Amino acid sequence: MGKAKKTRKFGEVKRMINPKDMRLKQNQQKAAEKKDAEKSAEVRHVERESSNMFFKYNTALGPPYHVIIDTNFINFALQNKLELVRAMMDCLYAKCIPVVTDCVLAELEKLGPKYRMALRVARDPRFERLPCSHKGTYADDCIVERVMQHRCYIVATCDRDLKRRIRKVPGVPIMFIVNHKLSIERLPDAYGAPKTSHSGGGSGGGGGK
């Protein structure tokens, strides 16, 4: 029988664990310390609550009501043959001042001649004009930022996404169109108004003022 050949093993070394391996206890401790340091250094932004919301209701809301109008709200009002100022007064039983921002007017101008009637309504001299200082003409972001800064407005919109965003801001009522008339959500009784019985419904209490 011939002798079996042995193959030489080149570069054979003892297997060692990497000093940076996370299975080592010291590395786990270092990672935990680093995580705690990052967490403590993190700047936490807590949004300031409006002083008007100190009580249960938003005390900054009261007649005359300032109603910020969205682009599609004007179009839906024309489709439902609603005269905005009169319809708002019928809804709230108080004087209402429709408010139009520069970006809403810019959106209507961009939509072209098809929406010229809506543009004419938005340029009504009874409407209050709010100047915008931001770039671009996206009205939704502008309206949300404005009501977060000043919670003295009602937002009139039929846009589902904008409604969802406004509902996250406490104390801001939403006006919308339903059954060919205006309706409002999240508007409590006026601060200091006499309490009315709930059996008669919300609209009956407002009409008696």
Walk me through what this model shows.
The chain has helices spanning 25-41, 71-79, 84-92, 102-110, 116-122, 139-149, 160-167, 202-207, and strands at 65-69, 96-101, 128-130, 153-156, 174-178, 181-185. Helix 2 (71-79) crosses helix 5 (116-122). It contains eight helices and six strands. Strand 5 (174-178) and strand 6 form a beta hairpin. The protein has a six-stranded mixed sheet, with helices on both faces. With 209 residues, the chain is α/β, with parallel strands linked by helices.
Using brief descriptors, characterize the structure shown:
disordered C terminus, 6-stranded mixed sheet, 8 helices, alpha/beta, single chain, 209 residues, elongated, 13% strand
Which class best fits the helix and strand makeup?
alpha/beta
**Mean pLDDT, rounded to whole units?**
79
The proportion of residues forming helix, as a percent range, comes to: 25-40%
Total of DSSP H or I helical runs spanning 4+ residues: 8
- Which ranges are low-confidence, i.e. pLDDT below 50, for 5 or more consecutive residues? 190-209
Roughly how many Å is the radius of gyration? 31 Å
- C-alpha termini separation: 119 Å
How would you classify the quaternary structure? single chain
Q: What strand line-up does the widest sheet have?
A: 3-2-1-4-5-6
The biggest beta sheet is recorded as: 6 strands, mixed
Question: How do you describe this structure in short?
Answer:
The protein is α/β, with parallel strands linked by helices and 209 residues long. It contains eight helices and six strands; from the N terminus they run H-E-H-H-E-H-H-E-H-E-H-E-E-H.
